[in-house]
């Protein structure tokens, strides 16, 4: 759609292929998933803040993870829903596209840093229980969270800056439901090989930089748990790690397929499917993962529901 322009000042999001009826069905599905995601993660934030049984580093990190899940889905899904209701392609300005891509990548990077910190927290709790309160004190937890947020947002400044320094003269139609970096690079008439290689190295650093501590931590955790003589003790120790471990598998698995590739300009269908996994499915599943696989959270939820019912009766 670019004719005599040297670069794009706005983009058109192609969204999802298919008929108007299919778009309405997709709107209903994604709107439902978005509402459940908001409610589920908000409930986790509330019970972690209110319930005294959840005043530990593990749940402190979980509260921040839920905030990040709300942000990552809100950055992309409302615009996607709006696009499903409108006929044709959705227009997005250059500044909005920059902001969306930056926030999406920054929040995702922060989330991976926090997942790595949560793995180390589980390692200290299981392998060093007598020193847990000393090592994972309030000051340490606050510092870990602040560093995770600052690192996530500072780390993505250059990648986004480099992406929008390119000249977009081939087209300004982005074949996705948000400003996907892979599709943006595909539209550039510059030689993006070097930029893609640097972005690949940075993605490797972020993902494996947080995945390696997770793998090392769980290696020690599993080794320690297997040495516990009582079966009930082993089961209890595993239950404290199950939710985090499941979240790690889903989160890292989808992002490894999306970002850790030397060639960022993959097929649009591939990028769209994995982007849906990252921004819709994972934030939707995480509240269920952290409640259904965690006895303390289930107890806190049950007591919270009872208190709410008593308030309504009175």
TrEMBL record:
Keywords: Cell membrane, G-protein coupled receptor, Membrane, Olfaction, Receptor, Sensory transduction, Transducer, Transmembrane, Transmembrane helix. It is a multi-pass membrane protein. It is found in: Cell membrane. Coiled coil: none annotated. The chain crosses the membrane at residues 25-47, 59-81, 101-120, 141-161, 197-221, 241-260, 272-293. It holds the Pfam family 7tm_4. Residues 40-290 form the G-protein coupled receptors family 1 profile domain. InterPro entries: GPCR_Rhodpsn (IPR000276), GPCR_Rhodpsn_7TM (IPR017452), Olfact_rcpt (IPR000725), Olfact_rcpt_6C-like (IPR047132). Belongs to the G-protein coupled receptor 1 family. This is Olfactory receptor. It comes from Galeopterus variegatus (Malayan flying lemur). The lineage of its organism: Eukaryota, Metazoa, Chordata, Craniata, Vertebrata. The gene is LOC103598898.
């Amino acid at each position: 759609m670019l004719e005599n322009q040297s670069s794009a000042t706005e983009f058109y999001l192609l969204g999802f292929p298919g008929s108007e009826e299919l778009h309405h069905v997709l709107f209903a599905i994604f709107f439902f998933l978005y509402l459940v995601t908001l409610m589920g993660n908000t409930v986790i934030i509330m019970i972690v803040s209110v319930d005294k049984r959840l005043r530990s580093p593990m749940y402190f990190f979980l509260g921040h993870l839920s905030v990040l899940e709300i942000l990552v889905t809100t950055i992309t899904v409302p615009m996607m829903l709006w696009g499903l209701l409108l006929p044709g392609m959705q227009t997005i300005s250059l500044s909005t596209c920059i902001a969306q891509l930056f926030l999406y990548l920054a929040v995702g990077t922060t989330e991976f840093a926090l997942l790595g910190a949560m793995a180390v927290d589980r390692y200290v709790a299981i392998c060093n229980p007598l020193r847990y309160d000393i090592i994972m004190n309030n000051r340490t937890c606050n510092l870990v969270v602040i560093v995770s947020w600052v690192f996530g947002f500072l780390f993505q400044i250059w990648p986004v800056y480099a992406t929008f320094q390119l000249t977009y003269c081939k087209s300004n139609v982005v074949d996705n439901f948000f400003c996907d970096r892979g599709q943006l690079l595909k539209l550039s008439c510059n030689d993006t090989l070097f930029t893609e290689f640097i972005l690949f190295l940075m993605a490797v650093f972020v993902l494996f930089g947080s995945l390696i501590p997770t793998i090392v931590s769980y290696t020690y955790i599993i080794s320690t748990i297997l040495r516990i003589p009582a079966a009930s003790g082993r089961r209890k120790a595993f239950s404290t790690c199950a939710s985090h471990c499941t979240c790690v598998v889903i989160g890292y698995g989808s992002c490894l397929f999306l970002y850790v590739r030397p060639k960022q300009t993959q097929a649009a269908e591939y990028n769209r499917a994995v982007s849906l996994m990252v921004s819709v499915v994972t934030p939707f599943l995480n509240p269920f993962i952290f409640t259904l696989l965690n006895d303390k959270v289930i107890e806190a939820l049950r007591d919270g529901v009872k208190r709410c019912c008593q308030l309504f009766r009175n």
